Amino acid sequence: MSPGSKTSAVLFGLSTIFVALAAGFLLDFRGQPALLYPIPLVATNFLDTATVRRSYADLVRAGDDLSDFDCYACHERGKPPRLRFDADQHLIVPKEHSDVVMGHGRHGRNNNCFNCHDENNLELLETRDGHQVKFADSPALCGSCHGPTYRDWEAGAHGRISGYWDRDLGEAQRKACVNCHNPHSPRFPSRQPAPGPHLLRPVAAGAASSGTPSNPGSEWVSLVGRDSWRAAVETKLGVLAREDARPTGAVVKLAQYPSR
Amino acid sequence: MPAPEPNFTPDAAPADAGVTRRSFLRTSAVLTTGLAALAASLKPLLQMNDFPTAERFLQKYYKEMTPDDMAKVIRRIENEVERQYGIRPHVRDLKPMDGVEFVYCLNLTRCIGCRKCVHACVAENNQSRNPEIQYIRVLRLPDGSLDIEKAEHNYAPESVPEKGYFYMPVQCQQCKNPPCVKVCPVHATWQETDGITVIDYDWCIGCRYCEAACPYWARRFNFTKPSIPKERLNPEMSYLGNRPRRQGVMEKCHFCIQRTRAGRYPACLEVCPAGARKFGNILDPNSEVSYILKNKRVFIQLKEEMGTSPRFFYYFDV
Fold first, then answer.
1. pLDDT 10s digits, B116-141
2. pLDDT of residue A214
3. Domain boundaries of chain B, sorted by first residue
4. Contact assessment for residue A252 and residue B300, using Cβ atoms and an 8 Å cutoff
5. For chain A, domain boundaries
């Protein structure tokens, strides 16, 4: 073999190796980036801003079916319906009103229809202190028995006000009690929760999820595997907490936390 | 006198022969390794799909931009979004209002842990859907405890609320004394006069110091290019708020700046079925938040011992 052909053979071999290496890096033979697994888009019902219930006022506004509120289609004016009770003094709700499931208060303490409905004019409600109010103004009825909650609601602390916090720029809508509470069974209904957070990589069934509950971000942090910067910053923070510690006005009193 | 010629040995190549076999092999081995290493180190560029444009590269610091500069930047962003998503967005740069300081109050007695706020936030603020970026974490805690170490965020029962637990959504607390701002080496994040700590995504270098500094795990990093399906893009955007982010930048809750600086409530509040979320101007004595801070008795400012002084108050109806 002449030195010239030897050189070109080596040259050829080396270029092949180089091309192969370059291809290898390009196609990423090792260290494939973490494959993302499909995450389904969240169902749009979880994005819905509608309240739990539609009130009488909502039905009127939307021009929907109001036949449930047309009391005198079935009842006779001037002839109040008679309440019937079973042997245990529990109210019997007639089957025509099967949508009315009474359960107001933990002990059904407010199950009497005429605590709220006006006996002599079924199309009106009657507050505890004897004022007649229209169905559309039902918060006044609720407020006659739930004073403190009603005051919170008026101030916007209970219930929900939607729209504009800046009333100069737009309108705000205060949701009515019956938007969230069924007047007959006012306990706030439970519901299916929206999906929880997905980890960056799927976790094998049964395996504990990465990221301690206390640090929901840690699954992201551990991905990089370099926590030293975190330690560095936390050291810095230690100084910060000391320098900036201040006496606090707000209180955290665990003993005061009432259980649900 | 010239120095004597070195001894001539037969196996050394003559000086003028250029390349010997050995030096050729050595050089080419070094060259191969070197080029391969170069190729490897440049490889991330292949994955980079939004090269900074000259415009973005030369952009001024947010606080130094004139209205004209900002108008140009907004046009650039609108063009970029339109190119990528096929939707012309409406990008604004809303400024803090005079006499407004935002405060958030969250009623822990009312929250039922349904996580609707989490997803409404994602929809409003154009977070990446995969990988998933969410600004709000809802923690589930056993009744009567506030030990965050015992919290669980992966709860998945048939229905909520569950007996024996309460729920605590955590998001950016918009601290008066924000540690994240202090650690940012490039001033890409700062606190505005209405109390919102903002991030300029065009200024962020992605060092993630702020993420580490935040005691509330409120900041999220775009490890990969965010993905948002076109049909879920919210075109109503603001510069410091919900405009789409790039790979390699930080993001977090900004109290829905694009809504709240236009007078509206944030998206998480609007979607809350229980009415647990309250937002408003603490400088207005008639606002809901003023009423709550005056009339409710128990407040929790999360990890307040760190001196962060959050503008986010948790309270109970007692």
1. 999 999 999 999 998 889 999 999 98
2. 32
3. 115-258
4. yes
5. 29-48+193-260, 53-179
Q: Which of B25, B150, B217 sits opposite A217 (nearest CB)?
A: B217
Residue of A nearest to B310 (CA): A250
Q: For residue B312, give the H/E element and its range.
A: strand B312-315
Count other Cβ atoms within 10 Å, centred on residue B29.
12
Give chain B positions within 8 Å (CB) of A11.
Answer: 28
Length of chain A as a residue count: 260
- The Cα–Cα gap between B114 and A188 comes to 13
Are B159 and A7 a contacting pair at CB < 8 A? no
Query: Rounded distance, CA A215 to CA A191, Å?
Result: 26
Task: Tell me the shortest Cα–Cα distance from A93 to chain B, in angstroms.
Answer: 28
Count Cβ atoms below 10 Å from residue A27 Cβ, excluding itself.
8
The tokens of B247 are what? Answer: 């790979």
If one counts every other C-beta atom within 10 angstroms of the C-beta of residue B256, the result is 26
Task: Give the architecture (CATH level 2) of B115-258.
Answer: 2-Layer Sandwich (3.30)
A215 has a chain B CB within 8 A of its CB: yes
What pLDDT is stored for residue B46 in this prediction? 64
In tens, the pLDDT along A96-148 reads 899 998 888 877 778 889 999 999 999 999 999 999 999 999 999 999 999 99
What mean pLDDT is predicted for residues B219-248? Answer: 92
| Enclosing H/E stretch for B166 | strand B165-170
ipTM above 0.85, yes or no: no
**Pair of tokens at residue A103:** 């359960």
Q: How far apart (Å, rounded) are the C-alpha atoms in residues A241 and A199?
A: 31
A94 close to B (CB below 8 A): no
pLDDT at position B78 over 80: yes
pLDDT at A224 over 50: no
